[in-house]
Write a structure and sequence with these properties.
Layout: H1 3-11, H2 21-30, E1 32-36, E2 41-43, E3 51-57, E4 60-66, E5 69-76, E6 80-82, H3 84-89, E7 96-99, E8 103-109, H4 110-119, H5 121-149
Antiparallel strand pairs: 1-8, 2-7, 3-6, 3-8, 4-5, 4-7
């Protein structure tokens, strides 16, 4: 894939919609194209965060481990970014990301993403909004799971 094609793909991701084209070119150049097969993990819950992933094609389940087993919290499809939360919070991964179809992605290192974010305040705002929405959705799904699995009184 050509650099300009990767820049166009990044521009289609809501986080990067308002980022300067020169910064997107840097991001595309510094990122690594990766592929995963069905069942492969992009990252595992509890691991340190060293990169975010832009899903170019395919689907990834976002799973959380609980004492009762693994629970699907959501999924990521084309033109979405995952793994950025542990970079922003400088903490461990909060979920496991597992490919449910063959996946092509761009792996963006922590330093590169941080640099682009510091140079683009609008991107920081977009990421904050997206993370807030993701948190709202995850909280709602956890509440629904809790209600479905509650023991009758």
């Amino acid at each position: 894939m050509l650099l300009r094609d990767e820049v166009q793909l990044l521009r289609s991701v809501p986080y990067f919609k308002h980022v300067d084209p020169c910064k997107l070119k840097l991001l595309a150049f510094a990122s690594q194209r990766v592929t995963y097969n069905v069942g492969d993990e992009l990252f595992h819950q509890g691991d340190g965060g060293d990169a975010a992933y832009v899903i170019l094609c395919g689907q990834v389940d976002l799973l959380s481990e609980f004492p009762g087993g693994e629970t699907k919290l959501g999924e990521a499809k084309c033109q979405s970014i995952i793994g950025e939360m542990s970079l922003l919070c400088d903490g461990p991964r909060t979920v496991t990301a597992r490919a449910t179809t063959p996946v092509d992605a761009l792996r963006i290192g922590k330093e590169c993403l941080s640099k682009v974010m510091s140079d683009s305040p609008r991107m920081g705002l977009e990421i904050s909004r997206a993370l807030a929405e993701r948190l709202r959705t995850a909280t709602s799904e956890l509440d629904n799971n809790r209600v479905r699995h509650a023991d009758p009184v």
